[in-house]
Design brief:
Blueprint (H helix, E strand, L loop, with lengths): L2 E4 L9 E7 L6 E2 L4 E6 L4 E5 L4 E6 L6 E3 L3 E6 L29 E3 L9 H10 L17 H14 L10 H10 L17 H19 L9 H16 L2 E9 L1 H17 L6 H12 L8 E4 L2 E4 L5 E3 L1 E3 L2 E3 L2 E2 L7 H16 L13 E5 L18 E15 L2 E15 L5 H16 L7
Parallel strand pairs: 13-17, 17-18
Antiparallel strand pairs: 1-8, 1-9, 2-4, 2-7, 3-6, 4-5, 6-8, 10-19, 11-12, 13-16, 14-15, 18-19
């Protein structure tokens, strides 16, 4: 039996995915559980595994194509069977959600219906507004295939008394608006002449080349989808959430001593490196439940109060800043915090995180101390209401007992959404964190 390989849903907010590369070629055998292709969402690049074995008979979505969730990207057949020809389904106007009972990257077997039509043909007909029962099929036994639906859609368009406005996918429309591109001269390559994101990007690139040739201006370097989404989220956050900032310096001498005391055990017995970020994550997880508004989020209906202590960590990756989340940190010991932080940071840098590992965070920590940054203010990570920015530990003059001494000091900056918290409540949280840094417990496990 021929099975459709569809674009999986890899997160609650995912609507489309981009094919990064196929890890198998047409005609190559595939084993169940073997990596089949790599896709990019707005949060991460993810390898997709095959849930059943067979032969990759046909690839219909190539590298670079953007496909809605549930859209057909290829066909898998059992040994000895032939694949039925189908049309590529690229960037349809309305993403087709997967049934709730299916796995995110389930390979869905084709099913016969009263009207003999392939699942891809039915999906394409729905997206293009074509009545499937009125389409003449050219497949085996008169079965309707996607090519028939595309032809029927084109005939309906040509037969219209007045030519309708060009079809354009929602994603392509958004990208065109971002690039300031006039769609009047853009030719669509999708079903029924639909303008896809790829059409928009090619037209924009051609325009940039023409402008560059005329003005001798430097070329514009394209950004990845993750970089673009991050930029949009930060711009929205800074433009809509009224930020205010609190700063304090914490005496980090005892914190430094604690880390030096614990490091041999962590590195030898537990085989994990303990960092100052691990200690800060641990401290914050113990304090946050006592300051519930720090974990609240602003909505138009009111404040959404969250209770799970899920802390995000700002991590530098090849394509920009990523914020994976350690969940339920208040239930973890310090060793496990260090293990999970190490794992998430390593996989973030290699682009191996799953989309759900970026979700459900209630608070974020961004530590730039390792880059010799003394202090900075961070932009809120929406929809969170607070983010902690941490500078490096540096010796500074400190008055102690009437004497000026050199002390290792750490700068902390708390960025806060003023719609959720006022200055006094935020200050109590920051003050308690500073106290814990200055007098840390030596009995943590």
């Amino acid at each position: 039996m021929t099975s459709e390989i569809v674009m999986p849903r890899m997160g609650l907010t995912m609507e489309t995915g981009i094919i990064v590369s196929w890890l198998k070629s047409e005609g190559e055998s595939v084993r169940a559980g073997e990596p089949l292709l790599e896709i990019e969402t707005d949060k991460a690049s993810v390898e997709i595994e095959a849930l059943e074995g067979g032969t990759l008979q046909r690839i219909v979505a190539k590298a670079g194509d953007e496909v809605p969730v549930g859209g057909v990207i290829g066909y898998l057949t059992k040994p000895g069977e032939e694949a039925e020809p189908e049309a590529p389904v690229v960037a349809a106007q309305n993403p087709v959600p997967l049934p709730a009972q299916l796995s995110p990257h389930m390979i869905i077997p084709a099913v016969e219906h009263k009207v003999r039509a392939s699942p891809a043909a039915r999906r394409l007909a729905k997206n293009l507004g074509v009545e499937i029962g009125e389409v003449n099929g050219s497949g085996p036994g008169g079965r309707i295939v996607a090519w028939n639906v595309s032809e029927a859609a084109e005939k309906e368009t040509k037969a219209a008394a007045a030519p309708p406005a060009a079809r354009i996918s929602p994603v392509a429309q958004r990208v065109a608006a971002e690039k300031g591109l006039d769609l009047a001269g853009v030719q669509g390559s999708g079903p029924g002449g639909t303008i896809t994101r790829r059409d928009v990007e090619l037209a924009a690139a051609a325009g940039n080349e023409a402008v560059g040739a005329e003005t001798d201006s430097p070329a514009v370097q394209p950004v990845s989808r993750m970089q673009r989404v991050m930029a949009e989220r930060m711009a929205h956050s800074f433009g809509t959430a009224p930020h205010f900032y609190l700063h304090t310096d914490a005496d980090a001498r005892q914190l430094t001593a604690l880390r030096e005391q614990l490091m041999p055990r962590f590195e030898i017995s537990d085989q994990v490196r303990l960092t100052f970020t691990d200690l800060l994550v641990y401290f914050c997880s113990r304090i946050l439940p006592r300051h519930p508004l720090i974990m609240a989020q602003w909505t138009e209906q009111g404040l959404r109060q969250l209770t799970h202590v899920n802390i995000g960590l700002a991590v530098e990756a090849e394509n920009g800043l990523l914020v994976p989340v350690i969940r339920d940190v208040d239930r973890l010991g310090l060793v496990e915090v260090a293990r999970r932080r190490t794992d998430l940071a390593d996989r973030a840098r290699r682009g191996k995180l799953l989309p759900d590992e970026f979700e459900q965070g209630v608070f974020t920590i961004s530590n730039l101390g390792m880059y010799h940054v003394d202090s900075f203010d961070a932009i809120l990570n929406p929809p969170q209401s607070a983010i902690l920015a941490v500078g490096r530990i540096k010796e500074r003059a400190l008055v102690e007992g009437g004497q000026v001494v050199a002390a290792a000091m750490m700068n902390l900056s708390l960025s806060v959404d003023h719609r959720v918290l006022d200055g006094a409540r935020a200050a109590r949280f920051l003050g308690e964190l500073a106290e814990m840094i200055e007098t840390p417990s030596l009995s943590m496990r």
